[in-house]
Amino acid sequence: MLTRLLSGDTPRSGLLTALLLIVLISLAFAPFLFPGTKSLETAARICIFIVLVASYDLLLGYAGIVSFAHTMFFGIGAYGTALALSTTGPNYGSLIWGTAAGAGVAALFALAIGLFSLRVKAIFFAMVTLAVASAFAVLVSQMSWLTGGEDGLNYKIPRELTPAFKLIKAKVFDVSINGKILAYYLVFFAAAILFLVMLRIVNSPFGRTLKAVRDNAFRAEAIGYRVVWYRTTATVLSAVMAALAGSLLAIWLRYTGPATTLSMEIMIDILLMVVIGGMGTLYGAVLGATLFILAQTYLQNLMGVAAEATSAVPVFSTLVAPERWLLWLGVLFILSIYFFPTGIVGRLRAGRA
Amino acid sequence: MSETAIKPRIEEIPLKEQLAQKLPVLLVPVLAAVGLIAIGNPASWLTLTVAGLAMGMMIFIMASGLTVVFGLMDVINFGHGAFVAVGAFVGFTVLAWLAGWTASPSVFMNLSAVLIAILAAMLVTGLLGLAFERVIVMPVYGEHLKQILVTMGGLIVAQQMIYVVWGPDELHMSRPEALQGSLVIGEAAIEKYRLVAVGIGLALFIGMRHILKNTKIGLLVRAGVENGEMVEALGYRIRRLFLIVFMTGSALAGLGGVMWGLYQETITAHMGSEIMVLVFIVVIIGGLGSVEGCFIGAMLVGLLANYTAFLAPKVALISTIALMVVVLMWRPQGLYPVVKAK
């Protein structure tokens, strides 16, 4: 049953299983285990980014395609939901059609870009997506009559998902069960389902062909698989998943703006999460996203302490200043590409064999 | 030796194909003419055209290194933008040291200050290119996926190092006296600095063409683009050649950075990745690996960006993407595809 749920792709390493279970349990009971607004925000962010990073891994790890337009699809999903909620009011109907519209538009965009530029080299696709994504970000911030420009959109979500709504009067483990908790569980279960769907996709015959195309496109073509079709389908699937993750973010934050969805920083974050977690395995996305967001939220404080402690040493203290944490991640990123191209998960699995 | 030595027979290219090869060159004047019709007013058209050419030249300076590096070694450097930013910061620092020179009314002093700043920037970015090539790019030759990722990582680290060295704030600097203000021709006002940028860009393009077509090292580079293994088999160290090209490309990015910084008068650590979008569009339009294509692409992008910024400011960046789409529909490999014998 469990193996079937995981589509036969079990973690295959004791330590990895333990880590994944810790992540799963912590996220499933986050409101009770770690009460407080900040930790709930962090947990929801982790759920959303697991989906986003896994969808990127579908492209990078399984299809071997580098895209810099992933935040564009993420943003399309978020703006789809946000626009629907802000124009037609906070009800479930608009929430659903906004999400569906976002996913549809993302799929169309991905299809267009894929058919247009996947026929040639990987590098070409990377460059085209970089250009298109930045143009899209500029467009969104300039069309302020529709998207709110740089300020973004604030809107209401259905009342049942806001802190004002109380499901039951009594407190459970000292935590009042309000709409915010409900919204968190909406995000959590949606993320879990999307993750399992992606696991299903990569372990299907389609996913296996995708790996064949990644490893040797020429040979796959010779065997009789339409390489362009497989690559384009992977792009579209990953775009739809990213758009759905975007919708989750839009529901959770009740705000959508360029900085939270479209910025290049988020693209770089996704890249770091995939590579550090492990390319070519969706469990890598889980570990990568979890570690990265925990580090982003809590490690920066630690670096602040380190900078205080070393403030006497002039150069060193600027190097460990909390704003410079991306520097160290960049170094880690380069090192992990050289020495652990399969990331944390690959290491753990190799250690067992 | 017999009388009937075998002579290589070089087939002459049919006229039609020759014309087809020259066709992209015509795009620039055609675009300029369309711009004149759309804008209507010749004076503002002239101003915009010079601005577009200046912007195009600066983009060309930054893009040329990237495209040759790709042509020669199949390496695309997503960290190229870091060299642009570092060049701009080094150039501004030097200009700040030479504040006395830049403020003096003497044209000679002004220009030599700029020249020193440019040389310093090119030296630093050239050396940075050396380090980048040895440390970051060399271990991943031939693996495109890793190259893209690793050079992206290099970009992140380099940008963060700029923050460490120069602080998180953007720098402002006004241009030296001699390069401020504009010339008025008829009703059109043309900024002096833009003319200087066009001059430098043209000189660089002609010099580059000369080196590539008429010198031995240029011959080797072109041969390397065509078929690297064969060049190695003939006893040339293509790796060393590549290193030289990589360093030159980085130094040119530094030059472009200084010029772009003086053009905008404001520089940030992120300027590199912002300009890289335009640079990539230019490189794609021109055809990966082609210097001529890159030049034409840069001119087209520069002109189009300035015309649309005047006519419909909101779609300026989208217009360059549209240009890229149109060009790729017409020639999927870019204007001048570089044929690989691999």
Automatic annotation (TrEMBL), chain A:
Example of a GO cellular component annotation carried by this entry: plasma membrane
Pfam family, one: BPD_transp_2
InterPro entries: ABC_transp_permease, LivM-like
GO MF term list: branched-chain amino acid transmembrane transporter activity
Location in or out of the cell: Cell membrane
Domain of life: Bacteria
Keywords: Cell membrane, Membrane, Transmembrane, Transmembrane helix
Membrane topology note: Multi-pass membrane protein
TM helices/strands, residue ranges: 15-34, 46-75, 95-116, 123-145, 182-202, 234-255, 270-295, 302-321, 327-348
Protein name: Branched-chain amino acid ABC transporter, permease protein
Automatic annotation (TrEMBL), chain B:
Entry keywords, A to Z: Amino-acid transport, Cell membrane, Membrane, Transmembrane, Transmembrane helix, Transport
TM segment ranges: 21-39, 45-70, 82-101, 107-132, 144-166, 193-212, 241-263, 275-304, 311-330
Coiled-coil ranges from the UniProt annotation: none
CDD domains noted in UniProt: TM_PBP1_LivH_like (cd06582)
GO biological processes: amino acid transport
Places the protein is found: Cell membrane
Protein's membrane topology: Multi-pass membrane protein
GO molecular function: transmembrane transporter activity
Pfam families: BPD_transp_2 (PF02653)
A GO cellular component annotation in the UniProt record: plasma membrane
Record has Membrane as a keyword: yes
InterPro entries in the cross-refs: ABC_transp_permease, BCAA_transport_permease
Keyword Mitochondrion: no
PANTHER family reported for this sequence: ABC TRANSPORTER ATP-BINDING PROTEIN, BRANCHED-CHAIN AMINO ACID TRANSPORT SYSTEM PERMEASE PROTEIN LIVH
Family to which the UniProt record says this protein belongs: Belongs to the binding-protein-dependent transport system permease family. LivHM subfamily.
Name of the featured protein: Branched-chain amino acid ABC transporter, permease protein
